[in-house]
Design goal:
Keywords: ATP-binding, Nucleotide-binding, Transport. With about 260 residues, this protein is of the alpha/beta class. Helix content is about 35%, strand content about 20%. The chain binds adenosine-5'-triphosphate. Adenosine-5'-triphosphate binds next to helix 1.
Length: about 260
């Protein structure tokens, strides 16, 4: 599956992980080969427990693979990097800081301070995400969807080349979730990033992605890497198209039926 492209921003070669070091312990993730190109949006779907988060944590440098190698810009990932932003399932905003100060928090945490240029960037990002009027509010004054948008803006503050998102919308209700998917596409268009997006939602993966890695049940390995040939920009019309239905059916077939490629 690897294309050995020099343009790969993220490269996984033979990546696998076994949490338990005993020789006969089961692998959580096995034999993942994937190159993600500049500004590509790649989603990972697969049954619960197949190792999606494990894979993301290895790309994030939060977990070192027991097998194979993850590299970013041709350098093996051995620890978290500043050019990689992460968005988790919960925004985990600090409740005692305003929205703007939450967005600036990574700088405060890393360098102990931030300057007016940083505040300007935070304001610009908040505006881009439609959050300007909430910049001085406290997190608990915002809806769950808005809090997640703040989490995305915070991850973009240091202008990372790569954005890793681990089920970022799974705590949201269905309507908010669909809307924030479109919001994310809008943000991604304005601030192009290379995205690795973990989701349980097949429709979300098809709506957002350029390619979708479909994983098997544990030990999670590659069942298919699907090119999403739907035109952009995507909208609710995309969801109603026959090609959208074909792609979601194809993935459903992998996930809900025996693990054999179609
Ligand atoms: N820290 C850990 N120690 C031991 N086993 C772990 C650890 N983290 C995850 N696992 C196991 O590794 C496998 C993959 O887990 P992981 O959370 O990566 O899957 P997932 O596909 O993200 O799951 P879900 O879709 O339910 O969030 C599971 O069997 C899980 O129990």
């Amino acid at each position: 599956m690897s294309q050995d492209s020099p343009m790969a921003f993220v490269s996984m070669k033979g990546v696998g992980h076994k949490y338990d070091p005993l020789p006969d312990a089961p692998m959580a993730v096995q034999d993942i080969d994937l190159d993600i190109k500049k500004h590509e949006f790649v989603s990972v779907v697969g049954p619960s427990g197949c190792g999606k988060s494990t894979l993301l944590r290895m790309v994030a440098g939060l977990l070192i693979p027991s097998h194979g190698e993850v590299s970013i810009f041709n350098h093996p990932v051995t620890e978290p990097r500043d050019d990689v932003g992460i968005v988790f399932q919960k925004a985990n905003l600090l409740p005692w800081l305003t929205v703007r100060k939450n967005v600036l928090f990574p700088l405060k945490h890393k360098y102990g301070r931030y300057g007016t240029a940083d505040e300007k960037r935070a304001n610009e990002l908040l505006e881009m995400a439609g959050l300007t009027q909430f910049a001085d509010k406290m997190p608990d004054e915002l809806s769950g969807g808005m809090q997640q948008r703040v989490g995305i803006v915070r991850a973009l503050l240091l202008n990372p080349d790569i954005l890793l998102m681990d089920e970022p919308f799974s705590a949201l209700d269905a309507l908010t979730r669909e809307q924030i998917g479109f919001d994310l596409l809008d943000i991604w268009k304005k601030q192009p990033k290379t995205v690795l997006f973990i989701t349980h939602s097949i429709t979300e993966a098809v709506l957002l992605s350029d390619r979708i890695l479909v994983m098997s049940k544990r030990p999670g390995t590659v069942l298919d890497l699907i090119e999403v040939d739907l035109p952009r920009p995507r909208s609710s019309n995309t969801i109603n198209s026959s090609r959208f239905a074909e792609l979601t059916d194809l993935i459903r077939g992998y996930i809900y039926e025996p693990n054999t490629p179609a």
